[in-house]
């Protein structure tokens, strides 16, 4: 299915880099988001900022932070900003067979209006909507520097940042930084700074969480570009 996005250059959609049985996306739209369309999956998500408005089963619905969106398979819906400040949201697409296997043959659940304010459902969907790996998210700014958190696993690409040093603070797990002269291992609570222009590759044998400190506008792939380049300046 093709999802048509607004032509505004400020709009963006990030798709999971390694989709498996569950596809995940995060997106921001300043106005029109999607034309009417259907999914053959459950669409479960939440509005992170602004108001997400959509037509669903003959009604105009409004998702706000704190609600859980649950759209039933094969139900027609669209998407747009409910106010002039735009909206940001995160969504996971779940094959109905996965839910059916858990229910043991019981009828598939249906949530009227496509929205729930039940805190139990909100907490239960948290793990589904966790952000994809290798996609840094800004948590704070100081002067021209950004503090970004990211989850990683596996190996990244070799790259460098000719214009700046780059600092890595490990929050959980073990970070391996490959350098031309060898590898260093950084553990929780430890900080390592890759000097300006230094070629390096980050890696982790198991999922690792870390904070990066670097000037605003620095791309995760440096000047290498390519499909591993993450959308920049995305706040958590």
UniProtKB/TrEMBL annotation:
GO terms for biological process: regulation of DNA-templated transcription. It comes from the Bacteria. This is AraC family ligand binding domain-containing protein. GO terms for molecular function: DNA binding. Pfam families: AraC_binding, Cupin_2. The keyword DNA-binding applies. Signal peptide: none annotated. Residues 154-212 form the Cupin type-2 domain. The lineage of its organism: Bacteria, Pseudomonadati, Pseudomonadota, Gammaproteobacteria, Pseudomonadales. It comes from Pseudomonas mosselii. PANTHER family: 16.7 KDA PROTEIN IN WHIE LOCUS.
């Amino acid at each position: 299915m093709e999802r048509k996005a607004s032509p505004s250059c400020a709009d963006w959609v990030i798709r999971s880099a390694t989709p498996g049985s569950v596809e995940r996306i995060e997106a921001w739209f300043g106005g029109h988001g999607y034309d009417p369309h259907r999914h053959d999956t459950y669409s479960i998500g939440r509005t992170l900022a602004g108001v997400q408005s959509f037509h669903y089963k003959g009604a105009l619905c409004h998702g706000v932070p704190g609600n859980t969106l649950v759209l039933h398979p094969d139900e027609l819906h669209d998407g747009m900003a409910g106010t002039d400040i735009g909206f940001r949201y995160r969504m996971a697409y779940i094959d109905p067979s996965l839910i059916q296997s858990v229910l043991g043959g019981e009828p598939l659940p249906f949530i009227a209006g496509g929205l729930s304010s039940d805190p139990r459902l909100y907490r239960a969907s948290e793990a589904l909507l966790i952000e994809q790996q290798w996609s840094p998210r800004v948590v704070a700014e100081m002067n021209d520097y950004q503090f970004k958190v990211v989850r990683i696993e596996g190996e990244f690409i070799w790259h460098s940042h000719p214009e700046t040093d780059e600092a890595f603070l490990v929050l959980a797990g073990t970070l391996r930084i490959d350098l031309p002269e060898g590898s260093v291992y950084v553990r929780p609570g430890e900080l390592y700074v890759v000097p300006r222009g230094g070629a390096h590759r980050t890696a982790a044998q198991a999922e690792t969480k870390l904070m990066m400190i670097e000037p605003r506008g620095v791309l995760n792939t440096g000047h290498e570009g390519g499909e591993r380049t993450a959308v920049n300046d995305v706040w958590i």
